[in-house]
Amino acid sequence: MDFKLSVEDILQIKCDLLVLGRFEGEAIKGLIKKVDDALAGALSRNSREEKFSGELGKGVMINTLGKIGAKRVLLAGLGKKPKFSSDVLRKVGIFTAKRAKLISEEIAFSFPVNGKKGNTSALIEGVMLGNYEFNKYKTNDKKWEGIKNVQFVSSGIRETNFKEELKFANIISESTNFARDLVNEPPVFLTPTKLSEIAQEVANKGKLECIIFGREELKKKGMGGLLAVSSGSDEPPRFIHLTYKPKGSIRKTVAIVGKGITFDSGGLCIKPRDSMRTMKGDMSGAACVLGVMKAISRLSLPIKVHGLISATENMPGGRAYKPDDVIRALNGKTIEVIDTDAEGRIVLSDALSYAVELKADEIVDLATLTGACIVALGDYTAGLMGNDERLINRIIKAAKLAGEKIWQLPMDDELRKDIESDIADVKNVGSRWGGAITAAMFLEKFVGDTPWVHLDIAGPAFIEKGGDWYPKGGTGFGVRTIVKYLLER
Predict the structure, then answer these.
(1) Same domain for 142 and 199?
(2) What digits encode the pLDDT tens for the residues 371-397?
(3) For range 462-477, the mean pLDDT
(4) Does residue 269 form part of some domain?
(5) Dist CA 105 CA 150 (whole Å)
(6) What pLDDT does residue 159 have?
(7) Of residues 345, 394, 427, 445, which has the active-site annotation?
(8) What is the rounded average pLDDT of the residues 185-209?
(9) Which of 13, 23, 139, 241 is the right S-S partner for 211, CB 3.0 to 4.6 Å?
């Protein structure tokens, strides 16, 4: 996709679709009126007929019938003016790309609000994210090739600023769409071995260090959690460790940890059929980690970043781990298995312990961990828990800038007794009440005193029916938030 600046008269510019923005409740004026007049009032007339007044996520599209240079005009809603932000423009970009599908290869945007820093990059992100489709396995010849050219018609954006924002938007969008591709891959293709090969490719291209442990190395290290969960599958497990090191002095060290269950049958506590579908997305945390590492290798950050992934299938084979088993994790703590379908926290126990061994200053993990979090927050919002309020607040701030919804859940001390075990240090499951919280409390056992945040992305990581701002399937949720957090100075 090619992006460029233009100062051409909007009535003369040649494109498939000219996009204008209208704040909710505002009259037709300025650039919109200029175009409306040229179209003999068609924009204002259609807006009245369709009862459109500028609501975000809505718009009016008309054919210009050759009266101006653009073939069509889309008047897109910007929402209420006091609530305007860069995220609004990101959503307008997504909305535009979805509306433009199959009819527009060349788009031009002309907004009166695109000079502020971050606005241009957000709009570009939106177009690239909204342009996404996963059609790799479709065999018909009519695959949509997507939007090819995008112009920004404005005299308020400097060329140097435009290039900087375009570069960032390309990095963040490509990394998010890369993570989406990984989540959408069928599990027959994206095995733990294949995931580790992709991680090696990311490392090679980004000049990152890469270490991959197989089953023998896991045994030597004492990663009993990952070994136990992988025992029911013919596919061997992999532990993936990517490292980004800055060229200059290292300001701090951060570990980003992802759950990489490439398919989750539930193990011996097997899932029903309908619940087993979409479980290829149970490695969305791992996909996010790889997307982040792909991005930061191009951003020249002054911090050291470890990307850690515990990758395996959870299957009910003859050697599968069982309810009532006791597992010893990397840090020596013992885990009583209550439910083999609560495997994600078990494989994360080793990864988090490993992050502590690396002496990370901060740890953030992302995992499609609990259905309880979806019950609490719905499909579009991730749950956030942790042991350090300063780190929690920084992640929340980053998520707002990234346009990803998260909500903090309380680490209620009264729930801790639910995961106390009579025969081990901790049970892997408590009662059904507060399940997302007790899952986080389980993970907390493996981070020691290191500042840590857990993001339960079970809802927004994979949305089967899609959403206004998300595609169907894998969403790449978390990539933008974590990159924004890492960019914090």
Answers:
(1) no
(2) 999 999 999 999 999 999 999 999 999
(3) 94
(4) yes
(5) 8
(6) 87
(7) 345
(8) 98
(9) 241
Range of the domain at 450: 174-487
Q: What is the mean pLDDT of residues 265-293?
A: 97
Indicate whether 342 and 204 sit together in one domain: yes
Dist CA 438 CA 430 (whole Å): 7
The count of domains in the chain is: 2
Q: Supply the DSSP symbol for 12.
A: T
The SS3 of residue 196 is: helix
Average pLDDT of the chain is: 95
- pLDDT confidence band for 253 (50 / 70 / 90): very high
The per-residue pLDDT for range 142-154, each reduced to its tens digit, is 666 779 999 999 8
* 238 labelled catalytic: no
233: Cα separation from own chain's centroid: 28
277 annotated active-site: no
Report the alpha-carbon distance of residue 228 to residue 322 in Å, rounded.
9
pLDDT per residue as tens digits for the range 103-113: 888 999 998 66
Answer yes or no: is pLDDT of 168 > 60: yes
Residue 424 DSSP class? S
Out of 67, 271, 298, 322, which one is annotated catalytic? 271
Same structural domain for residues 297 and 373? yes
Please check whether residue 163 lies inside any domain of the structure: no
Cα 30–chain centre separation: 37
Strand 304-314 and strand 238-244: the pairing is antiparallel
Domain at 396, CATH number: 3.40.630.10
Q: Is residue 418 in a domain?
A: yes
Question: Does residue 162 belong to any structural domain of this protein?
Answer: no
Classify residue 131 as exposed, middle or buried by CB count within 10 Å of its CB (0-12, 13-18, 19+): buried
Same domain, 446 and 321: yes
Sign of the dihedral defined by the CA atoms of residues 429, 230, 192, 235, in that order: negative
95 and 190 co-located in one domain: no
DSSP string, 301-362: -SSEEEEEEEEEEE---TT---TT-EEE-TTS-EEE-S-TT--HHHHHHHHHHHHHHTT-SE
